[in-house]
Amino acid sequence: MTRKVLLTGAAGKIGSFFRNTYADDYEFVLTDIAEPEDTQGAPFTQADLSDFDAIRPLFDGVDTVVHLGADPSMDATWESLLPNNVIATYNVFEAACQAGCRRVVYASSINAVLGYPRDQQVHTSQPVYPINLYGATKCWGEALGRYYSAAHGLSSLCLRFGAVQERDSEWIHWDHEYVEIIQTLEDNASLIAAAVEAGADVMFGNFHGISDNRYKRLDMTDTKEILNYSPQDDAFDMARGRGNL
Ligand SMILES: NC(=O)c1ccc[n+]([C@@H]2O[C@H](COP(=O)([O-])OP(=O)(O)OC[C@H]3O[C@@H](n4cnc5c(N)ncnc54)[C@H](O)[C@@H]3O)[C@@H](O)[C@H]2O)c1
Predict the structure, then answer these.
(1) What CATH number corresponds to the domain at position 153?
(2) Most buried residue, 100, 165, 170, 189, by CB count within 10 Å?
């Protein structure tokens, strides 16, 4: 049976790409505070995730919530993060729990661990180390996932996306400081789908999300072994024709 997937942040970059890629695979229900350019016929509700009563009905009958809606800026202020990342993420987990959804796939971020020195590979077993308030709010979401999975049996898979970019992005360049944390939109969409499809026994986890870059700032062992993530791109390979090496 086709899974019913509630997609928050559906008008955003990652949400639009994921929905377009998997339009035939899932029964999508879309929500965002902004209107998407194209819903491809999927039902859309314009709502603020910080308004619990406005969003709660959207969760009824949903199998998996893919929670992307947030302020994604590394420079985001507390005034924006409190409603859009902190309250919104609590509302999403609580509404999913009340509605009896099977799973929440939560868009965390590499910013939850970006404080470690750049020459160290980060493993999911290490403590969080956010370098900005935005990253700290992503740790809040991961903590909520752990709580709701343990206390309420709501499977909660947290994906620490790297720098998610189009394949032709200027970030995919030898000179760019973030080349080793690139995740192409194609690999990102496949990771979200892998998390949606992971076995019922996968109740919680923080999973790293970058492409198959030859140097991996984030260790990808769990993501590959537990979620069967199979990235296709290597940002260093893609940069070869573009940079000055
Ligand atoms: N793009 C990246 O490189 C990257 C990296 C790591 C994590 N992430 C995370 O992935 C998710 C999606 O990122 P994106 O790049 O698509 O960002 P985006 O800004 O393109 O999309 C986010 C969407 O969330 C919506 N939104 C924000 N606050 C909302 C609210 N209160 N109620 C309802 N909708 C709200 C926005 O309108 C927007 O459409 C975010 O949670 C972000 O933190 C992104």
Answers:
(1) 3.40.50.720
(2) 165
Name the residue of 140, 164, 176, 181 to mutate for ligand 1: max ligand atoms within 8 A of Cβ. 164
Q: Tell me, what's the pLDDT at 178?
A: 86
Q: Which residue's CA lies nearest to atom 38 of ligand 1?
A: 12
Whether ligand 1 lies within 6 angstroms of the CB of 10 is answered as: no
Q: How far apart are CA 39 and CA 29, in angstroms?
A: 10
User: 129 in a domain, yes or no?
Assistant: yes
User: What domain range is 51 assigned to?
Assistant: 4-240
For the chain, what is the total number of helices (H) and then of strands (E)? Answer: 8, 9
- Indicate yes or no: pTM above 0.85: yes
Q: Taking 70 as the threshold, does the pLDDT of residue 245 lie above it?
A: no
Alpha-carbon gap, residue 5 to 30, rounded angstroms: 8
Q: Rounded to an integer, what distance in angstroms lies between the CA atom of residue 221 and that of residue 223?
A: 6
Q: Does ligand 1 lie within 6 Å of residue 145's CB atom?
A: no
